[in-house]
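re: that chain from earlier
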Amino acid sequence: MNVTIDGMQYGNWSEKIFREMRAGGVDAVHVTITYHENFRETVANIRAWNLLFERYPDLILHGRTAADVLLAKSTGRTAVFFGSQNASCMEDDIGLIEVLHTLGLRFMQLTYNNQSLLATGCYESEDAGLTRMGREVVAEMNRVGMVVDMSHSAERSTLETIDYSTRPIVISHANPACWHRAKRNKSDTVLKALAAHDGLLGVSTYPHHLAGGSSCTLESYCSMIARAVDLMGASQVAIGTDLCQDQPDSVVEWMRCGRWTKKIDYGEGNAAAPGFPAMPVWFNDNRDFQNIAQGLREFGMSGEEVAGIMGGNWLRFFERNFGPEGA
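^ sequence. v structure.
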């Protein structure tokens, strides 16, 4: 059974977006439910999602296992998997990892651009690598079945985490730096190490990480995916759009600034336009996933390769990595 899975979104969630997911045939999506929120604030965000599941049971369901993707597919819905783009949600308490996993969190990034208690973010000038606490957190995430995500982490930290983790990790939303140089795009060294440890790369449609930005062509994007496949293998590449739909600029400021600064952090974008940049014409929202699939087919990829990239590779990763270690 072919499935369509997006490895990263952070939308201003609404019936409109859920219906667009259905129109685009999106069977599952990893959504960011927390950035800089602490544990209690993260629980409040989960509570808000529970209300959405109650309100739109014909459109979405809470995903916890790979089987939920197939359930969503067979019932015409989208399975929503929770993730955190920072470790703030666990505060400094390693015991909260299992609690958060029980509540449905399936992914957690060790950093969001800056240095954390666990590792170094990609915006820091010095990369100290995986910290003592970071090693303990990775081990606990491995134990309970919470996936380590290093999308916003610096190179040494990422490589050390790949090597230290006893289970495969992901870079859920980034692109090869050889295609477009950006602080969060990843070197060939990182991507080769990720593939060698059975990890997964979710290639992004975030304009600041595309060659040509918002004007990036579908052909160029598909050439980047083909390059990643050549480097990593077709089974280690998937989609992680980083689609940020219908969000106001204030939310983008929260992503970048949180509570760590009083200034506006513009990230890699234009300082005169701090909000989310315009999407490329071939991927405006969830209804456009088949444009990517068609582009990959026209680029010469086989049906099996396209099916894996569009969702099959994520599904296999979920099957192997959402349960307790050794299960």
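The mean pLDDT is 95.
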